[in-house]
Protein 1
Amino acid sequence: MVAVDLDAQRLNLTHLKQPEIHHLVKIQPHGVVLILDEPDLRILQVSRNASKLLGVKAEDLLGQTLDEILDPYQVDRFRAGLSYNNLELINPTKVWARRKGDDYSVFDAVFHRTADHTLVLELEPAVTQDNIPFLSFYHLAKASIQQLESTASLVDFCHIIVRQVRSVTGFERVMLYKFDEDGHGEVMAEDKIKDMESYLGLHYPESDIPSTARKMFLSNWIRVIPDATAEAVDLYPSINPATEQPTDLTLSILRSAHPCHLDYLHNMGVGASLTISLMKDNKLWGLIACHHRTPKLVPYELRKACEFLGRVIFAEISTREEEADYSYRAKLAQVQTALIDFMSEADYFVDGLTCHNPNLLDLVDAKGAAICFNGTWTTVGQTPPDEELNFLVQWLNKTVDGEVFATNALPLAYSDAERFKNVASGLLAIPLSKRSYVLWFRPEVIQTVNWGGDPNHAYEVTDEGGEVRLCPRKSFDLWKETVRFKSLPWKPVEIKAVLELRKAIVNIILRQAEELALLAQDLERSNAELKKFAYVASHDLQEPLNQVANFVQLLEMRYDERLDEDGKEFIGFAVEGVSLMQTLIDDVLVYSKVDLKGVECELTDLDDPLHQALSNLRGRVAETGAVITHDPMPTIVVDRTQLMQLFQNLMGNAIKFRKPGEMPQIHIGVRRREDDWLFSVQDNGIGLDPQFAERIFVIFQRLHTRDEYPGSGMGLAICKKIVECHRGKIWVESALDQGTTFYFTIPVGGRDRNHASGRTTQNYPFGRR
């Protein structure tokens, strides 16, 4: 056997590593297999070792019925049991097979049916002619359970099992082997003779017991190989004449093991083996593996006793595990209930999850947690930086397809996580929406794993006479591996807890959204009434104000000669007040109309509203000598009139707040960004204190007296409203005596694209944000 380096393109390693067990059609030579045709129980196939065990050649047995080779009375019992289609009524049983003369051989007989309902009878020579009585099973299990009651440790439980099994069977080594989530296994308990090397605590790679073999252990709870060196026996004929296919021996007790597994036993120095499945929740939890260095025949009754022992004692282990899980589940349920109460009472559900004790960390025993909601991160404990969290969420959006994502090896799935492995090698994530997540983190735990041989070279590919096959490793010496980039694993109960929390969060968000929607409706109705009142009130104020202005002017004209200087001054004050009042009313009307008439968006060359604004300001420009320049303006979808008002107010503001004796210099700039257009209006005026950068956009707010700078205090409030109605933002950057720059943005969303082919008008209520 020579190892060869084969082209990976020619070699299907997956097929070799996961052999199809149902294609194995040979049996072990210590028993006989009969393939039967129902209902007459005629022999269709028989193993070629029939002459040795039954005294009749395989060729001569074909076509005979069971009545001709077994006790007819027992065969009648078989037919009765088969008629009820319940093999449990007849399995297992002792049978007597005729030999020459009056000679009989006693066998342990077991029936089973294949996937295509072919009936198979397996016969093994009986070591004793008597069945083990029930009380023997009972006392065997009772003695073991009494030992279990004295300890609460899972490891101690496992050691009790292997001691009992070895005591009953006489094998030189008995191990209890548990599978992990990756399919690898660990020897949790071992009992052996002194001169054998210990395998306790060693890990074994998934390829040692591939998934196809594990599936077989689900249906075959006990598997025996009395002689690992024995030559396998064929069935005769090789093809079942009834199905015209090879008979599927997957469920056969006598089926020969896969050649790779026999090589594996040989390399371990094992001459005989017995394997018992340990099941939990209909899944393969682990195995009890019994090894002997020389061939060892294990009677059928003894094997069943071991299977019974394994089931009874492991049921006790499962109960203890469930009790431990229940205690932890109860603790998590208390934390979950508290978190839901905190969220329900908080104005903002994130505060309910993070600002109390217990908090998010206590739900899953995490060291860090982060919540991303509405683009804002809230963190608890040790977490990656916000920038890394943003990239992580982008990766999750592309990766996660479900309600939860859990890994204890994040850097192996997301390479960027290596940068923060010390805080987040483990990740548990639940999406609330496409951009909102709740994340839990666990730090890296560097571990040393002891393997039985190098797991990176668990097998080698060989070519024997043109047949490519896998051969297991020859060395099972201790091989240490340092495992990095992994955290402690997330328990199923923890994953279930976060899924339940996700439901609670979503329900609370929906409830709060409904409450906000109702509040928004009330506010919208109230705002509409206020705006209507402002509009109507402004109109109604016009008439009395005009009357006041007219009568004051008439008073001045008729009685000018009779008025002294004080009277004329008083009339001047009244005229100025009326003028100011008129300005205020006009500005209030403009402010209310911005919202009431809606945004009439159309594809607009911004040169047009800009030049209209300049034309409206030409008198003030000529008076002050202002120099106004601008960048080339884009063509975008906006309300033409509103943008004219915006430009006019900002440029008028720059002219008004010029430095004394200095000619105003104003520049309107624009540049395209990824999601919007950024505009700027820069001047060389008196500037303002940055602490007032927000206040100046509030209605009727002024930083100067009207004697210093006239105006109503409405101009910038109108600018803010116009920009927000276009779904943009406006802000100011300034310093005293350093000039001022106003910035505002106009998004480049779907409306630009929708109007790209021509001019179209759409009305948008100003209240829509």
Note: The chain has 21 helices and 29 strands.
Protein 2
Amino acid sequence: MAEVKQTYPIKGMHCASCVRVIEKSLSQTPGVMNATVNLATEKATVIYDDSECGPSQIASAISSVGYTALVEQTREDEDAEKKEKEKSLKVLRNKVVVSLFFGGLILWGSFPGLSKTSPSLLQMPFVQLLLAIPVQFWAGLDFYKATIPALKHRLANMDTLVALGTTVAFGFSAFITFFPTIVQSIGLEPMPYFDVATIVIGLILLGRYFEAHAKLGTSEAIRKLIGLQAKTARVLRPSVIANEVKQSMDRHADARDDVKYLEIDIPISEVLVGDIIRVRPGEKIPVDGVIMEGESSVDESMITGESIPADKAKGDTVVGATINKSGTFLYKATKVGSETMLAQIIKLVEEAQGSKAPIQRIADSISSYFVPIVIMLAFFTFATWYIFGGPQAFLFALLNSIAVLIIACPCAMGLATPTAIMVGTGKGAEHGILIKDAESLEIAHKINTIVFDKTGTLTNGKPVVTDVILSLNGEESRSFVITQDDMLRLAASIEKGSEHSLGDAIVQEAEKQNIKLESVTKFKAIAGHGVEGTVGDKKVFFGNRRLMEKEKIEILHFVQNDMERLESEGKTVMLLALRQAQGKQAYLAGLIAVADTVKETAKAGIEALQKQGIEVVMITGDNQRTASAIASKLGIKRVLAEVLPDQKEAEVRKIQQEGPSRVGEPRRRKIVAMVGDGINDAPALAAADVGIAMGTGTDIAMEAADITLINKDLMSVAQTLELSKKTMRTIKLNLFWAFGYNILLIPVAMGVLYPFFGILLNPILASVAMATSSISVVGNSLLLKRMKI
């Protein structure tokens, strides 16, 4: 048994009811664990047990309710999908033209007042019938194709409403055409309403055409990201292999006389891990890798947002789809295909756009009851008008019930949330803000407290050694003869096995001074304290105050003064203690101070959050004095210092429970975001309401986070909250319009205004209103693309 998650494009969806129908059918399929259908992306994300279910069963479940799943489509088929959509739009446009043209002719020949100016041929009911048949059964075929399977499963959707309304109008008109005397015998004028059926179909299809065009705009972010990919790569292959490739594929290749390799251009999909690739000035870097030869400057603005190219040399990593600006270099491919950073970004954005926000459950819940209620209202309208409608009761009942069926619009409700989510997540991706799912985007606008990890988040995470101070004297100095170089040698030797950024700073300083490191045995890292190990005949302890207290090592008064002075300058102080291998007493040898620089955008980013009324908290393992010095530079008032890595999660949960409370009311929890970049931040990121990882951090941190900032700009945190607020504002406006439209206009279609103002809603006008409602919701979502964050 293996759990598989797969996304399938679906053809034929038009409204929130379609979503519910497909989800219900999939959820009833054996082996399917979860199914989420997104109307805006027109895709279904299915989690299933591959021992019980597969793509064919999923396709069958979807087709059984009248829709088509493209189960064989892969990432390489994006162009095919685009062509398919363009083809569908062209067919839809033809149907719109035919429907409105024929409908217009019928209206000209049948509408009182206009018919006097029309040719007598158009006034003939049989001619109108001939014009209406292709509209009803060719242009309107999709309505029936979706309705009939749904009814078999005792389900209904928007297509059901349109098919029912137009079929009644067409059927009644056809009956009048063939049996006019029967109609006259019951006191009705034998006037067909083919114009209603044809023009309603034409206008609804026109609305779908505009809606489809608008929805293409909501997925523009994905297309832009896909468009960033290089198409080919110039790889070095052994000459024998390259010649075979050249002969079989007739590709361009240049031979090099000095080596047994050929440089050959191949499609990016054929690049393998380990391939050596040449990149020339102005070219896109095909895939992720490490430079082996040469140097250059690379435009990484696609990833980092930095407009200034980054210098690259041997050993540096390069990211696929970034642009080589100046030099030529060779590099080894380390990640290809779906493993590259760009592919991962595209996947993350696609998943976010396909996910559902909690607020969307409102629309989904209502839409599941909406269509059946509308059908009941249509029957109620027909019965009421038939009983109380006077001499023309039947016509009033017929036209008003058709108007109710046509004007009801679950489309707007279904599109209100996902279109805004698509544009919002796409807008975020353009600014280096990758949002994992719609729920995270929704929660972000409620955040009132943000906790920042210090090292690597507020600071650059690249500390440097600033001070080395000896502290041995008296009896201690007779036991150990030690210099500043010895201090660095011992500290760097033992930190060589550590992964902490402060340790890296000491190792780099020792290498810079050409100090030879020694081998270490019995190395041990003590979380939140430091490290220990044996170097030669000495036991070495290197860490903070807690480590010295644990080992009962005395910190002399004058050393305390040095520590306080350095810590007040925002430096992190680490203590080095020594003990003879066979000895019992350890002595403090000295201290090493390390300083990490604050990120350029940190202060501005904190100020932007504080202007939004957000409480900012800094959390760090540093002592209180060092932490307070850094916080003071950034304007952060609340500091949680000396927090061990495994305590960060608990601190986040404590803050969540600090919400204000009113007398007699339960305490309300704070909505907390955590911003971090390290492995030890992952539990806290997961515990926070929204975890935000810096893209320069570890993969584990980014996996635990809900939002990833792939640039280094801390202003992006405030921009994320602003993006969430504006997206949620758009969603609420969309839902207000979608619900308000139906609440106001369905009663008007039923004829509630007629007793007071003599107003009835023509089914043709009802179809205009219905189409307009969907287009307006999509259009409002597209306005998010213009927002500045």
Note: The mean pLDDT is 83.
Protein 3
Amino acid sequence: MPLDALLDFWQRDADTAPNLVAWRTLPPRPARTLPFPDGLPAPLSQALIASGIHSLYAHQLEAWTATQQNQNIILSTGTASGKTLAYNLPVFAKLLQDENARALYLFPTKALTQDQFSNLQSLVSSLQSQFSNYQLPITQSPTPAIYDGDTPSSSRATIRNTARLLLTNPDMLHTGILPHHTNWLEFFSNLKYVVIDEAHTYRGVFGSHVANVIRRLKRVANFYGAKPQFILASATIGNPQELAEKLIEEPVTLIDDDGSARGPRHFLIYNPPLVDKSLGLRKSSLLESVRLTQDLLKNDIQSVVFARSRRSVEIILTYLQQNQSPVSSPELPITNYSSQIRGYRSGYLPSQRREIEKGLRNGSVKTVVATNALELGIDIGGLGAALLVGYPGSVASARQQAGRAGRGLESAVSVMVASANPIDQFLAHHPEYFFERSPEQALVNPDHLLILLEHLRCAMFELPFKKGEGFGSLSGTTIDEFLHFLLSNGEAHLSDQKYFWMADQYPAANISLRSASPQSVVLQIMLDDRPQTIGIVDGESAAWMAHPGAIYLHEAQQYFVEKLDLEERVARLKPFASDYYTEPLQQTEVELLSESAHEVVRGGDKRWGELQITNYTKGFRKRRWYTHETLGEEPLDLPPSELQTTGYWLSLSEATVASLREAGAWTNDPNDYGPEWSKIRERVRRRDQFTCQVCGVVESSRQHDAHHKIPFRAFASREEANRLENLITLCPACHRKAEQNVRIKSGLAGLAYVLGNLAPLFLMCDSGDLGRHIEPLENRTFDQPTVALYDSVPAGIGFSEKLFEMHEELVARALELVSACPCADGCPSCVGPGGENGGGGKPEALEILQRLVVGT
């Protein structure tokens, strides 16, 4: 077999074998099947037999039994384990038994909706072929219909009146169905089942919004006399039952005993070789992935390559199609595979996607390079290999992507190529997180104040609230308080013990399910002299994402931000082709509002509470694509953005700081340049004729600075450090750049770096969902040196509270990661790099972590 031959080659290949840091093989697993249950309608069982299905997997039968006992269920079994059939059976049975019954299927994306629609049509076709045998009218067929933003206006009225099985997404349910529920009277009156597929995607802000959309759905259904039963399906995560019960606020039965068959599955973790051990620099994960993918191509193994970004997809695609990378096996001929290699990401037309999916199923496409758009349950058949270019952000996603490899009982391989990111390196050294358990907790907070208020507005528009009426699990008393707030704002009117919506517009139109910010900034370009909206960003992010001069990426297109109008909440953009990207230069201030929890821990104190974060975007830096070379910096004059949120912070005790100071592992104390420093500084400036020695600017109202060429802390004594030949006159702007270049990173900064990068492994969130801040000296906010991690969402979503609870595991894993890193003094894979000529602070960070974990 080609795959077995390639795996054997990789084990012998000098360029590959030494870098395979984990190789786990799951043995083949026979299917555990059982006969169809007695209650399954005969036309349905015959349709299954006609489709080649003669029995059910154990978990499918368990799901059937639970639903027939009126239980809500969540299926949490492996990829391609038959979850779709498990939820289709009870729905189709109900639709066959009750000709008035209706069902609603929710999918997170339109692409997945289209894919599942095709699968449903196949089942319906098989079912209808049995109708004549059982004298059933064709009107009793559970015909599916899609209702989303792409549904033609001409078809919508028919679908509203006749659809029995409706497929949509949460966004369309939120804006296009619930606000117009009076047009859906027949549908909501007879709603029996709600299926929520890919439930693990409903987490964080998005999940908290969706939980409120489901509250509204249940409220509208209840108004029409219906109480639907819920079936959820999820990838493997740490808390599927808890997540399901948070989403629907009802008891849920967990079904996770996978009875499906599986062939041998190989999972490899490949860590690119070090090219500079002291700096911790490794070969490019992207280029190493290209090399391994070419091996798969040459061995005729159909594969999917998952990249983290749209840009990475296009780069890998270019390398593969042009065959620019060296190959592992020189004995194999070089072939042009361009026609067999395709990309798959957002921005491609639906017709292109369907063509690629069809090519994967029929074998004409050998390799597809994709973003996570292919991760969800789109039917592309079982492939021979899946290659993950970097950790995809969550163990659940990694397992989903790896699960794309595997066709029945045939062998399959999944390879994760680790990047330099700390999480990737942690997993390279701790592969048990993939193989033995999922540490991730999918968190939602439906009662998040800003999100809740937005959906109360929507719910009140849909149906007036009776005084004392609850909303989901919230009591009538609590809801009355919120409604009274909306009343005082003039958004509601109280009449006859009912709260009515007062505004002209329906509120759902202005509420994004992807953001907790009540105010957004619209991104517009001019097209044919008319403004056209291409997207939105939340108000808190506008200053750093869409500031004047920023390069903004949208659907693989670059845009130059010409103007940001925060009053009108509009950013003006123009299409732009540049060889650089921009990154904001930010300054953060943190103010403690309240403390909710406090515990003394090894080495200090951990706390959780409310924080006020003030971000100043002072300017931006231009960096060249690919080389990341700094091309320059430009100042900005923008108002600060404020974020009131929740945070977890760790403060080092006085004893710990004293111990670190005694060990020479504490560099956060202010530099003491000595009593003669002002005179030395004056002599340096006079020597250099009060002129910046880099840009030539002469002093004006503000004095120039005297800068240490070799960092002050690199010397044993200040006399050595302050020698005139080690000092140079720089203007403030050049001084700032020079300090960035030669800074010595403190252990506290290194601690913040590793904790902030490692935390998403446990929270099932993106690194951008957390902010981090260090206070190296005691001040009015924190009375000791402190590292703070906070939710980047107004009012918080629960991430920081979870970090407070799991503090001990977080710091223990951080110590393992930093200890195992081979670099000498810090690198992107552990505590972060220092400046080009500075130190990375790794020894200090290790000393701090030792005291936090071991206590000595």
Note: Residues 204-223 form the longest helix (20 residues).
Protein 4
Amino acid sequence: MMKKSFKVKGMHCAGCAANIEKALKKLDGISSANVNYASEKAYVEFDPDKVGGEDIRKRVEDAGYDVEEADNRKLTFKVKGMHCASCAKNTEDALKKLDGVDAVVNFASERATVNYDPVKVGYDELKSAVEAAGFEVVEDEEVEEDEDGEYSEARRRAFIAWAFTVPIMVWMIPEMFIGVAWPNMRVFNIGMVVLAAPVLAWAGSSTYKSALNSVRHGSGNMDVLIAMGTLSSYLTGVAVLFTPILNYAGVSAMIMSFHLTGRYIEARAKGRASQAIKKLLKLEAKTARVIVDGVEKEVQLKDVAVGDVMVVRPGEKIPTDGVVFDGSSSVDESMATGESMPVAKNAGDEVIGSTVNQNGLLKVRATRVGKDTFLANVIRMVEEAQGTKVPIQEFADRVTGVFVPVVVVVALLTFSSWMLFPGTMKVGAGLLQDYLPWVDLTHDSVSLAVFATVAVFVIACPCALGLATPTALMVGSGMGAENGVLIRNGAAMQALKDVRSIVFDKTGTITKGKPEVTDVIPFNGGAGGLISLAASVESGSEHPLGEAIVEKARADSAELRDITGFESVSGKGVRAEVSGKVVHVGSRRLMSDAGVDVYPAVEEVQRLEGEAKTAMFVAVDGELAGVIAVADTLKEDSVEAIAELKALGLEPAMITGDNQRTAEAIAERAGIERVLAEVLPDGKVDEIKRLQRESGVVAMVGDGINDAPALTQADVGIAIGTGTDIAIEAADVTLVRGELSSVVTAVKLSRATFSKIKQNLFWAFFYNLIALPAAVLGLAHPVIAEIAMATSSITVVTNANMLRRAKIKKF
């Protein structure tokens, strides 16, 4: 399966998005299609063997909408294996054969520059074309164009509309309040028709085009309702010249003006909702100083390759992800972690591209470029999250899909009812006639029918329903990225708010993950010999406890000997041959498996474990040689974060392979009552399942690699790490900082986001449930109805943006 995302032009309401989704899902080979009206993007997952990019484009265009043009994306990547200009030409021809691709391949720089239509072709297809020509793609970088001037166009149309509508409103005042049409009724009526015409035909032309497209393709959107409402009211201005009917031509202009104003304000609000992506894109450095043949050379960021050494001076952005090659400094990593405190960097430390070097000269060797960088992954992840849907949105989507046809039917029934049963319809309106000055039941039946029907057309608002969830999700996921919390999709965010139990892996999550040797207790020989043997065996291991023993040996200048037959026994320890001796280092279970009697060390081990230390047995040729104790300290914010999670109503639990006594000692210091100790890696999944049966929704916090099965089993898997080491693909939620405060932030953010989503959905449903009946009964003036409709959409988007005021930061 392949994934594609592209921008869709011409959507004017949530109904449009629903129509495009339906059209795409009817294509054979498309497994999922999500169209986000707020971000104007479509996200499609499909089988390339059954359906292609051109089929997807055609289906969208057949539905009456436009897809972003082919030159909107630019991709640059290095081609390996070219030996002459003919190689470059062959590669270029291979790329150009792909539909929607224009390519230039430079043999001297070994780079291909490709302009392509992301709907017709994707990166995998470009790569396959190069490989089919006999070459290899070793890097790529995608450059996005700036978004178009939709906001400016919405503002221009609103200004044009009001330029004609304000004179209409001024002219209508004498007639409305004192019953005098100046200079006379005929001139007044003609004037309303003339002034309203450019508002509808000029400023509102896009609305009518959208409505016509929608109808032509057998669907309906918000613009269909506005078009029907404004045209029917405008035609009364023409009819009044020949029949005794009220003139609503001026009202049609006001409806269109308020409609366009609502679109303008909505465009501004949607821009704020999506500003997280724009902020991230602006963070990217544009150029880099690269050392070439011993000389500094300033190059475009796209020309930086893996392995290049970049020079970064104080105050400059680090161009791309890398490792400090030389120098020391403090780096502001707030753009990635949300933490304002600078981080010290020295030779060998990893740095994140687009973070700011504060003081000191750094030479950084590039390790990731283009789409592989931390920032590019964050942007992609946020975009994907914003393009997903959440379970709570499903009902709203179903309603939106049938909303317009239902409203049209209600409007026709309303007109018929007022024409056929005027006496019955007047009963409801008569109850509030004294309180609503625009309700005048003395008019003829046709005027009252038109009045109520137009109000039905323009008061109904599917947009509020369509925007309720995605706008809040856009703001929430963007805020998460700004604070070092990367949420993969909306479903994960919804599940996170419902979590009742949260399980923490001990090492590297609750603790720092950098244990140190605290006690060396030899039973035969000296401490130095014991450390030498144990460290020699552990030198073949990557476990943090083993690394601590190796570090202790180096600090004590103990000899590290050659080993043979190294074996790591998962969850128990390691064994190897050292100088002809079989050495075991590990837990009581490893010793038991090896037939080693550990009774002489039991008392010492119990004392060490009571001090929250991990005791490891060392055996040589089947005889106990001693015990080495290692301790891992709690992270600075662990106690406070655990307390905060408890205050939020969550039950924290700790899972570890440590023995029960050591685990309980660490858990007690952290403030955790529930301890799952002596759990082997393959047993963590079973423990998560048991907690799910007992507690319901469970989240698991781990390093994203060693705990992958448990993270997958949990309802929400949370990977915690630091810098570029984090496994972004490994979990539902990824925390950039290695601090438990980020877990608190994630929980608070999910709850705040879904609080806004629920508020928005409640408001959208409540508004429509109240507004439509009021319009049917003739209680809603068409202009006031349009103001209410526009306000409902604006309220939803504005409420989503207010999420930024939520207190999600730590403590």
Note: Residues 741-776 form the longest helix (36 residues).
